[in-house]
């Protein structure tokens, strides 16, 4: 049974485009996570620590080794936005 050679060009193009889009999506996710792999299975504690890191460093995935927080860390808390009932 002969091989339809003219079908290999579209097959190669489709395969290459899936590879290019998958690689681009992976790169975009890594760039948005500061070059780290994505997080899965986050609980409330992880989300709280991500919010704290966002307020301290400006990035959800960033952390600092310096123990002193920036000046605006004292005033950008989330507590004043929550109502106590």
UniProtKB/TrEMBL annotation:
Indicate yes or no for the key word Mitochondrion.
yes
Biological function? Accessory subunit of the mitochondrial membrane respiratory chain NADH dehydrogenase (Complex I), that is believed not to be involved in catalysis. Complex I functions in the transfer of electrons from NADH to the respiratory chain. The immediate electron acceptor for the enzyme is believed to be ubiquinone.
Question: Does the keyword section mention Transport?
Answer: yes
What cellular component GO annotations does this protein have?
mitochondrial inner membrane
Write the record's keywords in alphabetical order, separated by commas. Answer: Electron transport, Membrane, Mitochondrion, Mitochondrion inner membrane, Respiratory chain, Transmembrane, Transmembrane helix, Transport
Q: What does the UniProt entry say about where the protein is found?
A: Mitochondrion inner membrane
> Pfam family of this protein, just one?
MWFE
Q: Where is this region: Disordered?
A: 58-85
Compositional bias segments (type: Polar residues) = 73-85
Q: Identify the domain of life.
A: Eukaryota
Bilayer-spanning residue ranges: 7-28
Tell me what organism the protein belongs to: Tulasnella calospora MUT 4182
Q: Which family does it belong to?
A: Belongs to the complex I NDUFA1 subunit family.
Which PANTHER family does its entry note?
NADH DEHYDROGENASE [UBIQUINONE] 1 ALPHA SUBCOMPLEX SUBUNIT 1, NADH-UBIQUINONE OXIDOREDUCTASE MWFE SUBUNIT
The identity of this protein, by name, is NADH dehydrogenase [ubiquinone] 1 alpha subcomplex subunit 1
What is the membrane topology noted in the UniProt record heading this document?
A: Single-pass membrane protein
């Amino acid at each position: 049974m002969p091989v339809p050679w003219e079908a290999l060009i579209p097959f190669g193009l489709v395969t290459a485009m899936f590879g290019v889009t998958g690689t681009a999506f992976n790169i975009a996710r890594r760039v948005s996570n500061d070059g780290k792999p994505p997080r899965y299975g986050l609980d409330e504690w992880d989300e709280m620590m991500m919010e704290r890191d966002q307020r301290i460093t400006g990035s959800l995935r960033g952390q600092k080794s310096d123990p002193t927080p920036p000046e605006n860390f004292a005033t950008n808390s989330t507590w004043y936005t929550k109502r106590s009932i």
